[in-house]
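Private note to self, pasted from the team thread so I don't lose it. Backbone tokens:
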């Protein structure tokens, strides 16, 4: 009753009348379709309507029914060409255009002219450090609250934030500034340190040098058993191919080392491969991926392969096959019964 008091009586009365009218119209409409389907089915059962016409008639009636209802929610006026949509809503600024000239396959951008968790515009053009997501990982939210929102440049660097969009103090328009200290897509850590828990791991990021010490939770101690980092000055890791569910790197080093990848660690789902062989990887620096890499040249792949997704796909495929077989069986049975009746009649 409280919401009714917010509107005048004439408006409430009009709303009630409109809904009653819609209900009557839809009732009549549904009754007409029911009669048409029932009539077609009766004629088919009485052998007055051939099966070659029955199924198309039913399909057409169903299509008309669905089409007319769907058009209420989504019609031609709801669609716009890609070009017009981009011109209306997402015209790049000079700062965006400058960054888009960079041919680097993967880096991130931070727009300081808008809120870090409310900026959707930057994500349209670039891989943004910020942006809004209702399903944001809690660890990344921790990183925002304790590091990014406080201007922790070490964390921005380890996230490979290659460009910052800032406001020009003179023109008040956004401009792009390149960050020369961005750590890149991947690198060898000069050393590593085991920490006791997540809090200690997060606190270690306050003064982090990304290419220096890597902080690893002791949960992953087994992954690093026996690893002694002696020299990483001649080691390198480069991103060869980027795709949201598959990343390929090339590594080269004279000694075994700990590779740090500027990608968010997420398990279960992501698997790491070295030269085609699946290899356990770990979490480093609270949110990033780490991988123990042997000396020499290697091809490293990260693939998103959630087992529950593939199991679900197989179940859905089996279900679809069973449904198709069932429908074909029903149709075949109807055709057989009708053919038998005609033969008996003859």
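Design output:
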């Amino acid at each position: 009753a409280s919401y009714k008091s917010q509107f005048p009586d004439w408006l409430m009365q009009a709303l009630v009348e409109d809904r009653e009218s819609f209900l009557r119209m839809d009732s009549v409409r549904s009754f007409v379709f029911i009669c048409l389907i029932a009539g077609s089915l009766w004629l088919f059962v009485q052998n007055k309507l051939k099966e070659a016409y029955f199924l198309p008639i039913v399909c057409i009636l169903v299509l008309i029914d669905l089409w007319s209802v769907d058009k209420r929610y989504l019609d031609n006026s709801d669609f716009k060409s890609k070009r017009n949509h981009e011109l209306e809503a997402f015209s790049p600024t000079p700062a965006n255009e400058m960054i888009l000239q960079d041919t680097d396959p993967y880096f991130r951008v931070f727009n300081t002219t808008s809120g870090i968790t409310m900026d959707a515009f930057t994500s349209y053009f670039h891989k943004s450090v910020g942006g809004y997501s209702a399903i944001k990982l809690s660890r990344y939210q921790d990183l925002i609250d304790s590091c990014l929102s406080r201007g922790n440049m070490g964390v921005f660097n380890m996230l490979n934030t290659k460009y910052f969009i800032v406001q020009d103090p003179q023109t008040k328009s956004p401009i792009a500034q390149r960050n020369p200290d961005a750590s890149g897509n991947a690198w060898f850590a000069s050393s590593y340190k085991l920490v006791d828990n997540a809090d200690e791991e997060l606190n270690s990021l306050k003064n982090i040098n990304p290419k220096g010490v890597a902080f690893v939770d002791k949960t992953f101690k087994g992954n690093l058993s026996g690893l002694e980092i002696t020299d990483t000055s001649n080691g390198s890791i480069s991103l060869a191919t980027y795709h949201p569910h598959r990343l390929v790197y090339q590594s080269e080093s004279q000694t075994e080392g700990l590779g740090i990848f500027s990608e968010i660690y997420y398990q279960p789902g992501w698997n790491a491969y070295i030269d085609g062989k699946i290899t356990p990887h770990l979490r480093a620096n609270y949110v990033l991926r780490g991988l123990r890499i042997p000396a020499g040249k290697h091809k490293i792949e990260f693939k998103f392969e959630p087992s529950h997704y593939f199991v679900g796909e197989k179940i859905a495929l089996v279900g679809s096959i069973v449904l198709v077989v069932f429908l074909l069986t029903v149709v075949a049975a109807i055709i057989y019964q009708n053919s038998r009746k005609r033969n008996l009649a003859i």
